[in-house]
Design a protein that fits this description.
The complex is a heterodimer of chains A (about 110) and B (about 110). With about 110 residues, chain A is mostly beta strands. Chain A is about 0% helix and about 50% strand. Chain A is built from no helices and 11 strands. The chains are: A mainly beta (about 110), B mainly beta (about 110).
Chain lengths: ~110, ~110
C-alpha cells in the first residue's frame, strides 16, 4: 500500500529557476491539496483540486501553478522560485469533501538560494 | 478571511502532567479535525468532531467541540514522551478546503 508519495524529498534551487514538486496517490481519492509549512504559520493551503482538471486557489497561491491531468497526480510548479518560497511542502488527499481524513505525504523540503 | 488560532503556541510539561490546547475559529465550522505531527514528520489524522458539544476520547486524549462550533480543545492526561509533537486543528469553512490552526508544539520532559 504505497499511499501518498512526494518527490523529491529534498531540493535546493536558485532564485528564478522553475521547480516542480510531484505528488502521487494510489487510493484514487478525488480531492488533493498542497500546503506549505513555515515556522509560526502552521500549514497554509496553496492550491486544491476536487477532481482531474478541476483546481482552485487556496490561501497563498501566488507564484505557484498546479495541474491535475490524472486523478492520482497533482504536481506543484514554482514558475520562478523566490527565497520566500523556501519551505516544507506537503501534499494531501482525501476521499470525501469537507469531512474526511486527510492523508499527508512525507513532505518536500525546498530551499531557494 | 477565516482564521483558526491555537493557544498556546508552545507548551513544555513534565512527563505525567496534563496538557490542553485550544482552537478558536473566526467562523462556524461544519466539523473540526485534529492532527499530530511528530518532529520531522508529516501531519497524521487523530479524530474528527461533527456535532455541537461533542466529546470524544482516545485513551488519554479527550477532544471537545464547542456548542457554537467555533472552538475546540484537545486534552492529554498524564503526558508521555511519545506525546511530543505539534498538534493542529483544522476545519472546513463550509467547503472542502481546510483551514489549519497555527498549531501547539508540545515538549514532554522526562
Amino acid at each position: 500500500d504505497a499511499g501518498i508519495t512526494q518527490s523529491p524529498r529534498y531540493k535546493i534551487t536558485e532564485t528564478g529557476r522553475q521547480v516542480t514538486l510531484m505528488c502521487h496517490q494510489t487510493w484514487s481519492h478525488s480531492y488533493m491539496f498542497w500546503y506549505r509549512q513555515d515556522l509560526g504559520h502552521g500549514l497554509r493551503l496553496i492550491y486544491y483540486s476536487a477532481a482531474a482538471d478541476i483546481t482552485d486557489k487556496g490561501e497563498v497561491p501566488d507564484g505557484y501553478v498546479v495541474s491535475r491531468s490524472k486523478t492520482e497526480n497533482f504536481p506543484l510548479t514554482l514558475e520562478s522560485a523566490t527565497r520566500s518560497q523556501t519551505s516544507v511542502y506537503f501534499c494531501a488527499s482525501t476521499r470525501l469533501a469537507g469531512g474526511d481524513t486527510q492523508y499527508f505525504g512525507p513532505g518536500t523540503r525546498l530551499t531557494v538560494l | 478571511g477565516q482564521q483558526v488560532m491555537q493557544i498556546p503556541q508552545y507548551q513544555h510539561v513534565q512527563e505525567g502532567e496534563d496538557f490542553t490546547t485550544y482552537c478558536n475559529s473566526s467562523t462556524t465550522l461544519s466539523n473540526i479535525q485534529w492532527y499530530k505531527q511528530r518532529p520531522g514528520g508529516h501531519p497524521v489524522f487523530l479524530i474528527q468532531l461533527v456535532k455541537s458539544g461533542e466529546v470524544k476520547k482516545q485513551k488519554r486524549l479527550t477532544f471537545q467541540f464547542g456548542e457554537a462550533k467555533k472552538n475546540s480543545s484537545l486534552h492529554i492526561t498524564a503526558t508521555q514522551t511519545t506525546d511530543v509533537g505539534t498538534y493542529f486543528c483544522a476545519g472546513p469553512p463550509g467547503t472542502y478546503k481546510y483551514i489549519f490552526g497555527t498549531g501547539t508544539r508540545l515538549k514532554v520532559l522526562a
